Amino acid sequence: MSPKIVDREAKRQAILAAAIAVFAEKGYHATKMADIARKAEMGKGTLYEYFRTKEELPKSIFGLMLEAFDQEISQLEQAHADPVDAIMAGIQLCFQDLDEFAYVTPLVFEILGNKDLDRSIGLSEDFKQWLEGINQFFIAQIQAGQAQGKISSKLSAPIFARMLVSILDGMATHYCMFHFQPDFFMAQVKALEDMVCSYLVSSIGDKQ
Amino acid sequence: MSPKIVDREAKRQAILAAAIAVFAEKGYHATKMADIARKAEMGKGTLYEYFRTKEELPKSIFGLMLEAFDQEISQLEQAHADPVDAIMAGIQLCFQDLDEFAYVTPLVFEILGNKDLDRSIGLSEDFKQWLEGINQFFIAQIQAGQAQGKISSKLSAPIFARMLVSILDGMATHYCMFHFQPDFFMAQVKALEDMVCSYLVSSIGDKQ
Amino acid sequence: MSPKIVDREAKRQAILAAAIAVFAEKGYHATKMADIARKAEMGKGTLYEYFRTKEELPKSIFGLMLEAFDQEISQLEQAHADPVDAIMAGIQLCFQDLDEFAYVTPLVFEILGNKDLDRSIGLSEDFKQWLEGINQFFIAQIQAGQAQGKISSKLSAPIFARMLVSILDGMATHYCMFHFQPDFFMAQVKALEDMVCSYLVSSIGDKQ
Amino acid sequence: MSPKIVDREAKRQAILAAAIAVFAEKGYHATKMADIARKAEMGKGTLYEYFRTKEELPKSIFGLMLEAFDQEISQLEQAHADPVDAIMAGIQLCFQDLDEFAYVTPLVFEILGNKDLDRSIGLSEDFKQWLEGINQFFIAQIQAGQAQGKISSKLSAPIFARMLVSILDGMATHYCMFHFQPDFFMAQVKALEDMVCSYLVSSIGDKQ
DNA sequence: AATGAATGAGCCTTCATTCAT
DNA sequence: AATGAATGAAGGCTCATTCAT
Q1: Can you give the pLDDT at residue A1?
Q2: Chain B residues within 8 A of A195 when measuring between CB atoms
Q3: Is 80 exceeded by the pLDDT of residue D204?
Q4: Where does the HTH tetR-type domain lie (chains A, B, C, D) (predicted)?
Q5: Rounded Cα distance, C84 and C148, in Å
Q6: Partner B contacted by A186 (CB < 8 A)
Q7: 3-state DSSP: chain D helix, strand, coil percent, rounded to 5?
Q8: Is B67 exposed, middle or buried (0-12, 13-18, 19+ CB in 10 A)?
Q9: Could you give the domains of chain B?
């Protein structure tokens, strides 16, 4: 409410923006606090007015990102009446705003790859929970679809859902890492949707 | 006249084994050369008799691994007469010996996440080529299958193949990172094979 | 708003003074950065705020010294109308402030004696040029003296001048290394001047 | 007498020769024991059968050199009847075999410049004594010449002699360091002899 | 609140020396 | 006697963090 508060929050954001940019360019370990200060156009000391340690920076960055993710997932839960539609929407959601995320992919890797850092930031734990959220969404939709006779009863919802989560992460990660042409990637997504969709509904109506 | 006889190759392997173990436990940056020396039960100086720098260790580790991979891929090329069988074999190959690989997954992440380290080791470049090898294998098999009328002509080989590569990497990575129960993962692989297989042959014989 | 105010130049000088003192006491290789930091009463890290490497220290020390030398030589060029007077003044200049220089003589030796160090510092190159400057001064004065009939035409200016340079360096160096009594050394200088002076004018007016 | 002894002595010499060569090329600090072993074509361990430490190598090298010097000086003492001739011979002696010495000049510098090393090797002490031997020789000859009326009584033998020693060292050192053309250097030596000779006999027969 | 000078713990690497063979 | 593999103490340098101004 007071101007001070606004200032502080804006400055925090400015620092985070600078940190994201420099981390993305150099990676976490290769980034010095001095680099971030320079990018944010402030003194090194000032950074420590807003973040107690270097580790707080990725902690905040990913905290915000995962928070945003979580919101989007919970929105999904309600938007679609038809389970198969909902699943397709879930797939699409995973590939939304991927370009923004591509930026920090190497940073995610570096943190997940460093036990100490990861423990302190809790990234892999948060990440796991985020995936689990998606997983639960898919499980629920598949089971609903099976109950409604719209999805083959032969497939195991927990197994298929978890497989789907891995698949989506794999495709998203490869897009982020290898910088596919958008058209080429879109075609891949289309192929995936097609394959998943036909598989879900396959043998519905088969006599058993 | 009789200098101390040492099996240098065995010692190199012992060091690499120690390095893998410590890297896996702590990550690359958090691992000190002293840690590796202690694990390998030798002096710090001895490490440098076998590897010029700390970076040489992951370089050797991944050099050996990717070499082994490459051999296995090239073997695949010939073993299967039926393209669809070959594709299934390719999928299975990607999930072979995954437990051994799981060990170093975080190390891969950390290196891919660090520009300097990656450049010096050349891991992402090697990794990309390895994936490209698999991609080419799938493309070739799909096209062969289409030529033989065993695979639907509707799908684009380059797009589907590349999607499959991303999918396989995603599933393998999630297995390595989240330590699924083997049965649970096997069921996922089964579901994937099932889905891919039906998609490849779908609408063969459809009148169009 | 008001950052810590520091006279960076003064601090640089303080570090150089400490470095000279410790180098003089122990020699370059035996001096640890920690020794210099202790002598300068600051942390090791602070040294690196002012000098990028250990080698920068002798580089700066000799840079400043040779700069001062060069100025003094160029002043000599004009101050004396009579060439013989100028030569005597040149000789005296070489023995001025010798006590200050005595301090770093062993350091000069150590650097000149170490190929790598010398290359990086460029000391022997600078030193050579400095001697060449003195040499040219003597050559010019001798030739002027010969043109004016004040110096024997029999002697070769380039040869005599270069000999004189070696002689002066030899005497200065011995003074610095063996710490002669000032009176004893002054008497040597006097003898040299006497000898050189009589030799320069010898056989002027001889009929030939 | 026994072949073993001869073998050992030959090997010691081989090691010293290798050491001189490598020290000359790289300087003392930059030379590793492994370099010397390689040059001498033997194992590192073997070096330590002949020399207890790295420092023993320059200690032996200079021990032998200075021993050879001392012999030559003492020979001078008797060879010349005329004091002025003897002094000229002394000057020439200082410039004999200079090319051989040029080889190790940087090594001498490096050792003289390092207090610890010098103390352990005792080089500067030995060097000082060697110079003092030459000094005493010149003093004796000058005084003899003065007694015989062949050298001006005006000059102080101790002062002139010591000056001469510094001069000779200066010229020899510059030859070794700056690699003058032999002719150019010979002409300098000639000029020096000429100057010294005329100065010694100057004003003999002056009325006083 | 903002700054950046100062700090020192910590790490990779070197290399003289040892010693088992 | 000869070897060279093994060792570990030591040093230059980095950089996250502190704190005086």
Answers
A1: 44
A2: 195-196, 199
A3: no
A4: 9-69
A5: 11
A6: no
A7: 75, 0, 25
A8: exposed
A9: 1-52 (1.10.10.60), 55-203 (1.10.357.10)
H/E/C letters for each residue in D31-78? CCHHHHHHHCCCCHHHHHHHCCCCCHHHHHHHHHHHHHHHHHHHHHHH
Residue D132 distance to chain C (closest CA, Å): 11
**Token pair in block for residue B53:** 């720098």
Calpha distance B208→D187 (Å, rounded): 106
HEC assignment per residue over A7-65 = HHHHHHHHHHHHHHHHHHHHCCCCCCHHHHHHHCCCCHHHHHHHCCCCCHHHHHHHHHH
In sequence order, the 6+-apart residues with CB closer than 8 A to the CB of B7 are: none
Q: In b/e form, how buried is each residue of A158-196, taking b as 16+ CB within 10 angstroms?
A: bbbbbbbbbbbbbbbbbbbbbebeeeebebbbebbeebb
Chain E positions within 7 A of any protein Cβ atom are 1-21
DSSP H stretches of helix in A55-112: 56-79, 83-94, 98-102, 105-112
CB contact set of C184 (below 8 Å; sequence gap of 6+):
D159, D162
Q: Which token pair is B137?
A: 């294998």
- Which residue's C-alpha is at the least distance from the C1' of E3? C3
Contacts of B204 (CB under 8 A, 6+ apart): B149, B150, B151, B152
Contact indicator for C188, C130 with CB cutoff of 8 Å:
no
pLDDT tops 70 at residue C4: no
Task: Extract the tokens encoding A77.
Answer: 């839960």
A170 chain-B contacts, CB cut-off 8 A: 166-171, 173-174
Closest CA to A170 of C87, D23, B165, B178: B165
Closest CA to B105 of B18, B28, B173, B13: B173
For tokens 């380290």, the residue is B117
Residue C144 has pLDDT above 80, yes or no: yes
Angle subtended by helix axes D157-178 and D123-147, to nearest 10? 130
Q: Are B24 and B104 in contact (CB under 8 A)?
A: yes
Q: What is the pLDDT of residues A165-189, one digit of tens each?
A: 999 999 999 999 999 999 999 999 9
pLDDT in tens, D128-177: 988 999 999 999 999 999 999 999 999 999 999 999 999 999 999 999 99
Please tell me which of the candidates A107, A155, A188 has its beta carbon nearest to residue B113: A107
d(CA C83, CA D107): 39
Tokens 């992919």 -> residue:
A105
Cα maximum dimension of chain A: 73
Token reading at C206:
């001889």
Contact A162 B128 (CB under 8 A): no
Residues A105-118 pLDDT 10s: 999 999 988 888 88
Would you say D24 and D104 are in contact if contact means Cβ atoms under 8 Å apart? yes
The rounded distance, in Å, linking the Cα atoms of D4 and D45 is: 19
Record the pTM: 0.88
**Residue D208: predicted pLDDT:** 43
In angstroms, the CA D126 to CA D117 distance is: 13
- pLDDT band of residue D4 (cuts 50, 70, 90) is low
Neighbour-count burial of A144, counting CB atoms closer than 10 A to its CB (0-12 exposed, 13-18 middle, 19+ buried): middle
* Residue C150 vs residue D206, higher pLDDT: C150
- Residue of D63, D61, D87 lying closest to D76 (CA atoms): D87
DSSP secondary structure string, A137-156? HHHHHHHHHHHTTSS-TTS-
Give D180→chain C minimum CA distance, Å: 10
